[in-house]
Amino acid sequence: MKLNCDLGEGFACEGAVMPFIDQANIACDAHAGSMELMRQTVILAREHKVSIGAHPGYPDRENFGRISLESTPEQITEWVTEQVAALASLTPVDYVKPHGALYQDMMSSPEILAAIRCALGDRPLMIQAQFGVMNDDLGVLTEAFADRRYTDTGDLLPRGQPGSLLNAKEIEEQVYLLLNFGEVKTDSGRRIRIKADSLCVHGDNPDGVRIIRRLREIIDNA
C-alpha cells in the first residue's frame, strides 16, 4: 500500500511530510499554489524519490477548488491541459489526480471523466481515483482516503457534515480495516469493501505530520 498526499498548496507542514510518503499530488497553480511553489515541491519530491502527480482543480482559489464550477467539458479539458502542462514543464509527471470538487465530479460524471482523459492526450498517464470510476478501471490508480468518512454507497461524506473528517484515532482505525480487511466503516456503522493501492492523507490536516509518520509505520509493519 502506498501513501499519497496533496502538496504544493502552501501549507506549512509540506516539507516535513515528504520523507514519509510515496506519492506527491502537486497543485498546479489553479485552486492553490504557484509556479515557484510547484518548483520547490518538485525539488523536495526528487530529493526523497517520491512519485510526482499533477493535482489539477477548478480555477477557484477563493473556495480552494472545493465547489463545482459551471463549465463545459471543453473548458474542463482546457483547464486540466494547462495545469498538467505547467507541472510537466518542471518535471516528468507520473500520474494525474484531480482535486476537490473536480475529483468528485469526475467520480459521478462520465462526461467530466472523458474531458479529463481528453486533456491527457497521448501522455501515458494514469488517473488516480477511487475504485469504480470506470467500468473496467483500466488506467486508474485506485486510492482510498485515510482521513475521510465514507457513506454506505462508497462515496465520501461531504465536507461540512458532522463526522466527515476523521480524527487521529479514527484514521488509524480506518487504515487498520483497509490494510487487513479491505474495508472501511461508513457513517452508518456498516463495513463496506474498498479496493485501493494507495492511501490519501490531506496536507491541510492540522495534525498532518504526526498522522502521516504514524501511517508510514503502520503500512511498513503491515
Description:
The protein contains seven helices and nine strands, in the order βαβαβαβααββαβββα. The protein is an alpha/beta fold and 222 residues long. The chain has one domain: TIM Barrel, CATH 3.20.20.370. Helix 3 runs parallel beside helix 5 and helix 6 runs parallel beside helix 7. It is globular, with a radius of gyration of 16 Å.
Instruction: Give the beta-strand count.
Output: 9
Low-confidence stretches: none
| CATH architecture identity | Alpha-Beta Barrel
Structural class: alpha/beta
Mean pLDDT across all amino acids: 94
* Sequence of secondary-structure elements: EHEHEHEHHEEHEEEH
CATH class: Alpha Beta
Shape: globular
Radius of gyration: 16 Å
Q: Report the sheet with the most strands, covering strand number, pairing sense and barrel closure.
A: 7 strands, parallel, barrel
- Could you estimate the helical fraction of the residues in percent? 25-40%
Count of domains: 1
CATH fourth-tier homologous superfamily: Glycoside hydrolase/deacetylase
Report the portion of residues in β strands. Answer: 15-25%
Number of helices: 7
CATH domain topology: TIM Barrel
Q: Looking across the biggest beta sheet, what order are the strands in?
A: 1-2-3-4-5-6-9
Distance between the termini: 9 Å
Put the structure in a nutshell.
This protein is of the alpha/beta class and 222 residues long.
